[in-house]
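Hi V.,

You were right to ask for the full record rather than a summary. Here it is.
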Amino acid sequence: MTEGIQRVCVVLVDRANYGRLHPVMTAIKADDHLELVTVCAGTMLLERFGLAEKVVEADGFNVEGRVFLEVEGSVPVTMAKSIGLGIIEFSAEFQRLKPDMVLLIGDRYEALAAAIAAAYMNIPLAHIQGGEVSGSIDESARHAITKLAHLHFPSTARSAEFIRRMGERPDTVHNVGCPSGDYIRRLDTDLPGDLFKHVGVGGNLTPDQPFFLVIYHPVTTEFGTARQQAQNLIDALHTLSHQTVWLWPNIDAGADDISKALRVYREHNEAAWLHLVKNLSPTTFQKCLKKARCAIGNSSSFVRDSTFSGTPVVLVGDRQLGREHGENLIFVASEKDDILKAINFQIEHGRYPTSTLYGDGTASSQIVEAIKSFVPYRQKSIIHAYSSS
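Predicted structure:
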């Protein structure tokens, strides 16, 4: 390591992680005072999720570490076991790579494993998107990471306030906005006409015609209900039979039930309107979200990233209950009729004005400057008085 240069280890645990961290990684890589170290883990390394690691490398980033931690099964006990395995494997990688700081984002259980490993190894930990209300077990993981982290980059003013109320040092809390906005605002919506001939399976969709974008993940605190919830969503979309791009769910408990509902539907229906995709590059995904006639499901991308483009969103179920959102979003129960009514309303309404709720598109530069000026400390303690400024 060159004298005076900080090695910042960015941990990527799923496709959404990378989409939001891509601009931060670019900014770190371009800075003469920082050295980017990339570790791919979790579903980033799995073929059935599109081997997102390969997208990272294609974008010009070296992957210095790989952590295989996912215990197969997609049930609550495999999630818990994956955390334990992740702590062991992240500890080994951090020992080998010797970073000066570990940078994490969000609320994934894989990220929690990395946070525990870094904290117990006395490695300063920076956390993006802390303080948010997100529902499911993910919210607990998010707040646990916050209490392990030494440097905080919340995406909204309310989130920053929540972190200070959790007793974190006010001088370590920087409301920077969501990094995905750094490039979403500048993106056009040009997509190759043959895009869906090369990625995914199903109907031969044409990106130059209006389409829906769907992502539906299991709600871990409602384990056992995912199959029926997914079926209700499928039934609603079947009624409309509007060309639809559907990204496969994540690996959380209940994901296999959602996947099964999709497979059974395709076996018994021609479904020319439906195209299933494992993964899209961050830029392609954001172009699809920006261009979509309506985004439908329960992905956090539909909550935050859509604010930068004004895409109409129908948020289904309780997975993102309590999240801050723009006026472009409607919450509905995971019932067929409710979903249909909301989709039709959003189609009639059309696009919404863009919002600065999740920042002004300068998050990455602010994060880099805060990392460079950060004075490391190990001992954390609850701060009784905090500023709400």
